[in-house]
Amino acid sequence: MQQAYHVPVLLKEVIGGLKIIPSGTYVDCTFGGGGHSKKILEKLNPAGKLIVFDQDEDAWKNVPDDERVIFVPHNFRHLQRFLRFHKITKVNGILADLGVSSHQFNEAERGFSTRFNAVLDMRMNQNEKTTAADIIKNYSEEKLHKIFEKYGEVTNSKTLAKTIVELRKAQSLRTINEFKNAVYPIVKGNPEKYFAQVFQALRIEVNDELNVLKEMLLQSVDVLEVGGRIAVITFHSLEDRIVKNFFKNGNFEDEQAQDLFGNKAGNELKVITKKPVVPSSEELKMNPRSRSSKLRIAEKIKVSEE
Ligand SMILES: C[S@@+](CC[C@H](N)C(=O)[O-])C[C@H]1O[C@@H](n2cnc3c(N)ncnc32)[C@H](O)[C@@H]1O
After folding, report:
1. Is the beta carbon of 17 within 6 A of some atom in ligand 1?
2. For 294, phi and psi rounded to 5 degrees?
3. Is the pLDDT of residue 111 over 70?
4. Which of 33, 63, 67, 234 makes the best surface tag, with the fewest CB within 10 Å?
5. Distance from the CA of 97 to the center of ligand 1, in angstroms?
6. Of 212, 219, 271, 274, which is closest to residue 238 (Cα–Cα)?
7. What pTM was computed for the model?
8. Is residue 74 over pLDDT 60?
9. Max Cα–Cα distance, the chain, nearest Å
10. Is 123 close to ligand 1, i.e. is its CB under 6 Å away?
């Protein structure tokens, strides 16, 4: 049996949370297998519109032949630019279901999974230049250390960076097996968990995942109609913290910005989900990949100008 391209997570919760207006305009920033998009389209009438982004060529074949759909084969960090290109200034809702699809993860040669052996690639957009193997080969020890520490919370990130720089002088670390076997002697704790953290760090760096998220969030406020909603599904705490702070404070810090007089600067978003929505036990059973997903939703509000 052929594996599904991707099983959408928190589907009911996302669709309910977006409060879809049938004639509205919506954006799916992360089209993938189109599971969320399909449900959004079911809620839209012929006047509705759905703009879908995906930077991975593999996802393009899933785009439905539907007049209401505009497909943007680019990074969602250019959200506003491409909406303008299609003469769209405001939308009623935005969805981002972050990270990689099951398809990307299950294709050995994409190099995302610790389960297979292939070149350490990890590019969602295969037209980009830098792969994970390039990072391992070329980054300085300091830079590698920071990435493993910040993006993977790898316990011995300094030792790992030092080991890589030492080993790469004499041997190739281009493939998953070469890399895993070479650094195995310094692995701390459960190797599976350890490599999952290391791979997460590399993937975030290869795809600049935290910056693209921040850029999209900043633009989303401009692009949303008052009353429009943004829903973001994250899969690790670094992303979730960014979304949480942005929805609550209008910036990426823990506190709302204040003006010179100590007044809170106007945040144009209102948090709808005080706590993140997580998968039900039924969903976890049916789709274990939904395990670490967290959904947060915010609504654009009108801020009075004083
Ligand atoms: C978790 S999957 C989304 C699955 C989708 N919701 C579904 O139901 O099938 C994430 C998808 O978004 C794409 N993606 C991730 N980050 C992106 C970005 N910054 N710009 C454009 N596409 C992105 C990936 O290539 C992948 O296909």
Report:
1. no
2. -140, 130
3. yes
4. 67
5. 6
6. 212
7. 0.95
8. yes
9. 65
10. no
